[in-house]
């Protein structure tokens, strides 16, 4: 149960499970928006970062609120036809962290809007983009608390050294996502 910002009644939360190349991705949300995307805890990832036809909703497809439908459509496109994500609507978000005004929210929205598919940005560069050049550590905290991974692409934030850095889904998953995007971007450029 997640309470709305106004302290009103709790949301009627629904869950959808998407089978993806990374494993089972759990998505929760309500009529107002997506609350959270939970990545699988996995150490086995597919070889190569090829797009996969295997990406389907395996649980919770009945009576799915529109934001969850948009979220699953967006994630499916991300894994199967990455070039089409730019033309899809980003689902509404309804996580408390993304409702209240904060530096974390600013950083996550900046990341979503300014760091495009196949690009990477350092923690310091993202702090600059979000309006506080000395807040690289705070950017790291914002990445750790990101409730909507992949759509809000915290995997695109890397260390200034070029090292991939930490990731909630694990370093292997972060490297897989970065290489998936790099490969797809190169294909689209051809």
Describe this structure in a few short sentences.
This protein is of the alpha+beta class and 190 residues long. 35% of the residues lie in helices and 15% in strands.
Structure notes:
With 190 residues, the chain is α+β, with helices and mostly antiparallel strands. It folds into 2 domains: 14-87, Double Stranded RNA Binding Domain, CATH 3.30.160; 96-189, Winged helix-like DNA-binding domain superfamily/Winged helix DNA-binding domain (Arc Repressor Mutant, subunit A, Orthogonal Bundle). Helix content is 35%, strand content 15%. The chain contains 6 helices and 6 strands; from the N terminus they run ββββαααβααβα. The strands form 2 sheets. The protein has a 4-stranded antiparallel β-sheet with strand order 3-2-1-4, with helices on one face. A two-stranded parallel ribbon has the order 5-6. Strand 1 and strand 2 (23-30) form a beta hairpin. It is globular. Its cofactor is Zn(2+). One of its GO terms (cellular component) is nucleoplasm. It is an enzyme of class 2 (transferase). It catalyses: a 6-O-methyl-2'-deoxyguanosine in DNA + L-cysteinyl-[protein] = S-methyl-L-cysteinyl-[protein] + a 2'-deoxyguanosine in DNA; a 4-O-methyl-thymidine in DNA + L-cysteinyl-[protein] = a thymidine in DNA + S-methyl-L-cysteinyl-[protein].
């Amino acid at each position: 149960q997640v309470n709305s910002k106004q302290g009103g009644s709790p949301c009627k939360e629904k869950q959808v499970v998407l089978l993806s190349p990374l494993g089972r991705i759990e998505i929760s949300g309500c009529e107002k928006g997506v609350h959270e995307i939970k990545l699988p805890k996995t150490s086995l990832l597919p070889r190569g970062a090829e797009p996969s036809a295997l990406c389907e909703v395996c649980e919770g497809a009945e009576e799915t609120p529109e934001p969850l439908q948009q979220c699953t459509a967006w994630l499916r496109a991300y894994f199967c036809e990455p070039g089409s994500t730019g033309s899809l609507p980003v689902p509404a978000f309804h996580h408390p962290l993304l409702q209240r005004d904060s530096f974390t929210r600013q950083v996550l929205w900046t990341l979503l809007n300014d760091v495009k598919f196949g690009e990477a940005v350092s923690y310091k560069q993202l702090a600059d983009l979000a309006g506080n050049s000395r807040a690289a550590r705070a950017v790291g905290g914002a990445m750790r608390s990101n409730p909507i991974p992949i759509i809000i692409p915290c995997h695109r934030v890397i260390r200034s050294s070029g090292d991939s850095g930490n990731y909630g889904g694990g370093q292997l998953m972060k490297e897989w996502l970065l290489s998936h995007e790099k490969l797809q971007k190169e294909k689209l450029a051809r």
